[in-house]
């Protein structure tokens, strides 16, 4: 990838949306004029989202609507394909609940250009931090910040990266989509880099009180809370973890081993806090079975219905999202 040349870059923003809130209108308004096009891909929200989507169009975005809920990767890929056909050189992907300051777009592009100038093969550029979480894994002696576990929201990707490694893996549906993409880039010899000082305000999920037994096991160390996903997400987290491990266990063994150990601990904690516990174990079993059988895409409705009946047996902590740490 050659260093960006002022005037030659065409940055298109692609935002995935599902039952979007009116706040998305403000995000589009903020970015308009700072990028070449904003594309919002609605992932099967249905007619209830008509009003918000019309307001998004009036704010200056192109809205693409899908008749069914096909998952975040599929939605983003549709926007990426639109950007490619429209002549984009870079795509900036965002979640609907992320509000990247407009000035940060240029800083992401500049950071990528600087890293290329230092001789690095750049896969993408992301903010140094999302919420309170650092995306930096390593600082090169030339000052380049390399990533690990970068989230796709706020990710500026040259079209050349998609040409080389492909777009997002749609059959994962949700969860580990960005992890799989970063692993694929790394295996191809491309590195994600972070733009120093750029921060993405981002929702990290719900924080819950850390149970006493867990505090005892860790000798009181670590955060005072645990961040739990919405129960249905555990189907995708378990299934996709198995699939990603199978894909990269030989090319990225250390990365896979570390992530698997962290996730297994979290899955055990979630299982102890789920009510009824047998329901979450049922979700886990379905995820393992589907991963082994290669059943991908949207989960079976019977499994998702079981997940919707699960509650967490620990008090939720109300506080700003930037204060919580999500398991990734």
Features:
about 325 residues; alpha/beta; Spore Coat Polysaccharide Biosynthesis Protein SpsA, Chain A; 2 domains; five-stranded mixed β-sheet; 11 helices; 15 strands; about 40% helix; globular; disordered N terminus; disordered C terminus; transferase; Glyco_trans_2-like
What is the topological layout?
Elements: E1 11-17, H1 23-31, E2 37-43, H2 50-58, E3 62-66, H3 72-85, E4 90-95, H4 103-117, E5 122-130, E6 133-134, E7 136-139, E8 145-147, E9 155-158, H5 159-165, H6 177-187, E10 191-200, E11 206-209, H7 212-217, E12 225-228, H8 233-248, H9 253-273, E13 274-275, H10 277-293, H11 301-308, E14 311-312, E15 316-317
Parallel strand pairs: 1-2, 1-4, 2-3, 5-10
Antiparallel strand pairs: 4-9, 5-6, 7-8, 8-10, 11-12, 11-15, 13-14
Helix pairs in contact: 8-9, 8-10, 10-11
Protein name: Glycosyltransferase family 2 protein
InterPro entries: Glyco_trans_2-like (IPR001173), Nucleotide-diphossugar_trans (IPR029044)
Keywords: Glycosyltransferase, Transferase
């Amino acid at each position: 990838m050659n260093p960006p040349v002022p005037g030659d870059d065409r940055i298109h923003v692609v935002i995935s949306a599902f039952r979007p809130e009116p706040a998305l209108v403000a995000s589009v308004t903020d970015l308009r004029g700072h990028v070449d096009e904003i594309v919002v891909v609605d992932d099967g929200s249905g007619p209830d989202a008509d009003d918000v989507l019309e307001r998004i169009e009036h704010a200056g975005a192109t809205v693409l609507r899908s008749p069914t809920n096909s998952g975040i990767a599929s939605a983003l890929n549709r926007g990426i394909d639109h950007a490619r056909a429209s002549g984009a050189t870079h795509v900036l992907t965002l979640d609907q609940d992320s509000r990247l300051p407009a000035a940060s777009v240029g800083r992401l592009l500049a950071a990528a250009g600087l890293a290329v100038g230092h001789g690095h093969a750049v896969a993408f550029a992301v903010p140094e931090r999302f919420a309170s979480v650092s995306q930096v894994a390593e600082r090169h002696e030339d000052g380049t910040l390399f990533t690990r576990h970068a989230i796709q929201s706020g990710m500026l990707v040259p079209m050349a990266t998609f040409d080389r490694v492909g777009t997002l893996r749609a059959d994962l549906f949700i969860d580990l989509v960005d992890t799989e993409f970063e692993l694929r880039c790394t295996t191809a010899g491309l590195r994600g880099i972070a733009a120093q000082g750029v921060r993405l305000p981002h929702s990290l999920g719900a924080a819950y009180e850390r149970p006493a037994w867990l505090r005892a096991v860790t000798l009181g160390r670590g955060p005072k809370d645990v961040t739990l996903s919405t129960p249905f997400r555990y189907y995708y987290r378990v299934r996709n973890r198995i699939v990603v491990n199978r894909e990269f266990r030989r090319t990225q063994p250390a990365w896979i081993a570390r992530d698997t150990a962290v996730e297994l601990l979290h899955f055990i904690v979630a299982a102890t806090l789920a009510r009824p516990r047998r329901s979450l174990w049922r979700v886990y079993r379905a995820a393992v079975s589907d991963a082994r059988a290669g059943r991908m895409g949207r989960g079976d409705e019977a499994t998702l219905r079981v997940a919707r009946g699960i509650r967490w047996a620990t008090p939720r902590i109300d506080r700003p999202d930037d204060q919580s740490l999500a398991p990734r």
